[in-house]
Amino acid sequence: MDAAAERVARMGVFDPDGVSRAVLEHATGRWGSLTLAALVEGPLRFAEVGRAVDGVSDRMLAQTLRRLEADGLVSRTPHPTVPLRVDYDLTTLGRPIAQRICDLIDAIYQQLPGIVAHQRRSAPDREPVA
C-alpha cells in the first residue's frame, strides 16, 4: 500500500459510521461534486447553481446545499431584498476541496477518449456510458 492509500485508510473513510466518510459522500456525490465545481468561480444564486448543475431538481439542490453548508464547505448569504436574494459561495474549507474536484473532473475529461474506447470494446452493441 502506498503512502497516500495508508493515509486515507487511517482517516476512517472506509468506516461507514465515520465523519470523514459522510463528508466525502456529501462533497463527491453526484450533486455535491457538481455543486462545488459550479461555485468555484464565485458566488451564485440558487437558480444560477441550478442552471449550472443541469438536471438537478430544486428539492435535491436545496438538500445538497444544506448538507454542504452544514459541513462548512458552502456559505449561504441572504440579502434583505424583495424578493429575497440568497447567494451561495465556497468557504475557506470548501474552496480547496472544490478545486480538487475540478482537477478530478479535468483528469476524467483528459482520459475520456480512452474510457469511451474501452466501453465500446467491452460492450460493442451498447452506447458508451459517458
UniProtKB/TrEMBL annotation:
SUPFAM superfamilies: Winged helix' DNA-binding domain. InterPro entries: HTH_HxlR, WH-like_DNA-bd_sf, WH_DNA-bd_sf. GO terms for molecular function: DNA binding. The keyword Transcription regulation applies. The keyword Transcription regulation applies. Residues 15-116 form the HTH hxlR-type domain. It holds the Pfam family HxlR. Keywords: DNA-binding, Transcription, Transcription regulation. Gene3D superfamilies: Winged helix-like DNA-binding domain superfamily/Winged helix DNA-binding domain (1.10.10.10). This is HxlR family transcriptional regulator. It comes from Cellulomonas soli.
